[in-house]
Amino acid sequence: MNWSWMMPETVSTYGPAIDQLYYVILVITGVVFFLTEGALIAFLVMYRHKEGRKAAYIHGSTKAEVVWTVVPFLIVMAIALASKSSWDLVKNPANFPADAMRLVVTAKQFEWNVTYPGADGRIGTADDFTVRNQLHIPVNRAVRVNLRAEDVIHSFFLPEFRLKQDAIPGREIPVWFEATRTGEFTLGCAELCGLGHYRMKGTVYVHTEADFQSWAASRAEEQQQ
Amino acid sequence: MSTAQLVSSLEKEDRTQPGYTDEGLHELSFIRKYVFSTDHKTIAKQFLFLSLFFLVVGGALAGMMRWQLGFPGQPLPGGGVFPDTMAPGGIILPEFYNSLVTMHGTIMIFFAIMPLLVGVFGNLLIPLQLGAPDMAFPRLNMASFWLAVVAGTVMMASFLVEGGAAGAGWTSYAPLSTSGEWTGVYLGQQLWLVSLIIMGASSLTGAVNYITTVINMRAPGMTWFRIPLPTWSLFITAILILLAIPILTGGLIMLLFDQLIGTTFFIPAGSGEPLLWQHIFWFFGHPEVYILILPAMGIVSEVLSCRARKPIFGYHAMVLAMVSIAFLGWVVWGHHMFQSGMNPMLGTSFMISTVVIAVPSAIKTFNWLGTLWRGDIHFDTPMLHALSFVSMFIIGGLSGIFMAAPAVDIYLHDTYFIVAHLHYVLFGGSLFGIFAGITFWFPKMFGRMMGEGLGKVHFWLTFIFYNLVFFPMHNLGIQGMMRRLYDPNEYEFLQPLQEMSTFISISAFLLVGTQSLFAFNFFWSMFRGRQAPANPWNSNTLEWTVPSPPPHGNFAVMPTVYRGPYEYSSPEVDADFYPQDRPPPGAGPGGQAAPEPTPGPAPTPEPVAGD
Ligand code: HEM
Ligand SMILES: [Cu+2]
Ligand SMILES: [Cu+2]
Predict the structure, then answer these.
(1) All residues with CB under 5 Å from ion ligand 3
(2) Distance set, CA B82 to CA B39, B139, B168 (Å)
(3) Can you tell me which atom of ligand 1 is nearest the CA of B169?
């Protein structure tokens, strides 16, 4: 059994920053966990009932209250501020790479349809082509996906890329990511979307640039016929 | 009827008048006494039986879910009783699994934990701890219980209708929940909505009652800062209920309209907005999670102080922390929606408010530790549960910090990490708090002591199996396992986790099985337990000054309160406790030393004998 608290491998450019943040929180909460639970157990042993013992008649301490209000406040605020830059990097469209390759992913019960722009590089034209449950992308190039949903809410989850975003019917929500190595990875649905939710999955194929180009060309050709 | 007659007849019924008791006024029929009772203690017991029943139902649903997750696709032992639409040949279908997920969450939150905390302890403790003869509105109180029965019946009936019970999750996200087109569940989802609307009415009638009682019916000398913490927590909870439930009810009605009469509040095809549902639901939902934890915090504070024989550390800080949670709880709902498509800038604001609300939780934890420090700790069953609350709540609070950081939440959202978090606060927190409360006040409720030995065995097994079930879920979440999956093995990268899922499931069966020890102890003690004295725990609060169980009308003589509720090990007396109503030395008999005047509209500072 895997009792590990380590994050699994990540293959996106921003993945390591998110993992690092996770480890910072893990260390801070880990220390707090051992200190508080340790104090609890120590008190239980030290102050267990003994014949003739009377508890101390203490109602509190303003100084202690101030300390354990201010210190946790500072710690959690520091965590929050440290989290802000990664969050903005991943989710704020203003920060998305301008030259990213553009795709549309349309979720519906229970499949992911990925639309490519075709030869003209533009989506919404006749030479677009769509593949089901396969997301082919080149390595080391930013990809911007506009997420749509046809029926209910789904959630576009690329665990190895550290990306998750709900797809909402009636909206188009942009996300981006950039792969750092080639290989096959998981695309899953993370939002309960009906009885087939558990099998609403696809595969991310990260190719070298050349392989991607030839794949795209062959698909575009199929589309022409 | 003349005005004077009217006034005098009203006064006779006005239970806000101190000293009011109708004991002996009339012999109550069996039905009035046990079924349509207006006595707050009886209603507390009725809520107890009702919500323990639903706790069993919720546990059974969880057991079936864990069967599918531990042994995917294998026939459920005894599953042959289910029709083919649910589990043909005992093999649970995906749509039935979704109903199990949905109904487990719904029943546990709305029909088990909430009524256990608010219905049981609100009813039992508020009048007794304040020195009042009953609730301000006893008939409303009775209505609150019977509305809960109706709501529960409707919820259970939804299993039997065509299409099965609701299957869109306890959060019922639209548009999945707006039409059977998406789930195959039509009537079941509508009954779910109707049931929760009725349950909301039940909670509201309860809440106005608690609030009125706390404001108006405190015994002389029971100033705000002499109110025991369980009653404080229930008072604040009642205010949260009063404000939060109507929001949910509004949303439920809109969703019902979308289902039934063709409105499109949440349906984009009709230019509705799916995210509106989430905003409404979580604007209710986050205060709701505090409704589910505050009373447990109050109970645990009481038990810790009493069993450590030490004043609660930082009484005022404890109250202030609860008050600030009650305020901050309204501005954090967006942390459930970080990945929903809400503007990411808004995500940043909700991150700030969310980490701030972790601070009062930390304050409370440190004060509990401070209470134990230099105490004289008695490890009775209620105390074990209360200590377990503290240690488990620490874990739940700390895991919250991970998801409060939106960047980390990108990965953790909707995974088993969330499932672990919510069970550490709701089972490790609320339910252990409830066990602490039941075992602590059982003697007051039933006049008999609960078995200590069996109680301890039940505690330890529950504590161990509980952790074996829920702690590994953190690890599953970190490996990326999504929640609410019928069969995670569909995903190749989750297949290596099957062993852990099976381990969790076996632990879960043992955890559920262990609860039979509690059930046995509960019923056995009710009839065979040792006769309980008035004050078995040497506690300070007023409920322990009356017989166990207290008579109708509670206090033969209206008590006068001289001090705070946590004067344990005071140097002023030899014993290690100093009840709130004991006159200070030197005061004449009958408590002639002037009590602090009661603020607010509560009249008569003079203690009045019951008539
Ligand atoms: C100590 C401070 C706490 C923090 C910082 C915190 C934070 C969070 C966050 C950010 C989420 C959303 C995670 C996601 O869906 O991605 C969450 C979920 C949840 N929290 Fe907490 N939480 C705290 C305490 C509590 C308490 C005291 C309770 C209840 C007793 C609670 C009950 C829940 C529940 C039930 C969910 C899951 C709701 C669902 O999606 O089904 N939390 N918490
Ligand atoms: Cu889906
Ligand atoms: Cu919340």
Answers:
(1) B 286
(2) 40, 40, 21
(3) 41
CATH fold of the domain at B36-528: Cytochrome C Oxidase; Chain A (1.20.210)
User: Could you report the per-residue pLDDT of A142-162, keeping only the tens digit for each?
Assistant: 999 999 999 999 999 999 999
Tokens encoding B467: 């952790």
The 3-state DSSP class for residue A156 equals: strand
- Residue ranges in chain B modelled with pLDDT below 70: 1-28, 587-611
Write the burial class of residue B150 (CB in 10 Å: 0-12 exposed, 13-18 middle, 19+ buried): middle
Element (H, E) at B444: helix B432-446
CA distance B441 to B436: 9
Expressed in angstroms, the distance from the first to the final Cα of chain B is: 25
Query: Which chain A residues in 1-30 lie under 8 Å from chain B, judged by CB atoms?
Result: 1-8, 17-18, 21-22, 25-26, 28-29
Span between the terminal Cα atoms of chain A, in Å: 50
Nearest alpha carbon to residue B106 among B150, B44, B156:
B156
Residue matched to tokens 């995500």: B347
Q: Are B416 and B98 in contact (CB under 8 A)?
A: no
**Residue (of B236, B249, B247, B289) closest to B113 by Cα position:** B289
Instruction: Please indicate whether residue A122 or residue B352 has the higher confidence score (pLDDT).
Output: B352
The pLDDT value recorded for residue A52 is 86
Report the C-alpha gap between B582 and B130 in whole angstroms.
15
Domain at A4-93: CATH architecture: Orthogonal Bundle (1.10)
Do the beta carbons of residue B15 and residue B133 sit within 8 Å?
A: yes
d(CA A75, CA A30): 13
- Amino acid residing at A51: E
- Domain map of chain B by residue range? 36-528
Tokens linked to B176: 């999945």
CB contact under 8 A, B311 and A58: yes
Q: What is the DSSP letter of B88?
A: G
Question: How many other C-beta atoms are found inside a 10 Å radius of the C-beta of residue B127?
Answer: 32
Domain boundary assignment for chain A: 4-93, 101-224
Q: Match 């981006």 to its residue by tokens.
A: A176
B355 in reach of chain A (CB within 8 A): yes
β-strands A134-138, A202-207 pairing: parallel
Give this prediction's pTM. Answer: 0.93
Check: complex ipTM more than 0.95 = yes
B439-471 burial: b if 16+ Cβ within 10 Å, else e: bbbbbbbbbbbbbeebbebbbebbbebbbbbbb
Q: Give the DSSP per-residue string, A43-92.
A: HHHHTB--TT---------HHHHHHHHHHHHHHHHHHHHHHHHHHHHHH-
Residue of chain A whose alpha carbon sits nearest to that of B391: A37
CA B368, CA B313: separation in Å to the nearest integer? 7
- Distances in whole angstroms, Cα of residue B491 to Cα of each of A137, A203, B474: 20, 10, 19
Query: CA–CA separation, A164 vs A161, rounded Å?
Result: 9
Strand partners for A144: A102, A176
**CATH of region A101-224, choose from 2.60.40.2550, 2.60.40.420, 3.10.50.40, 3.40.50.2300:** 2.60.40.420
pLDDT of residue A53: 86
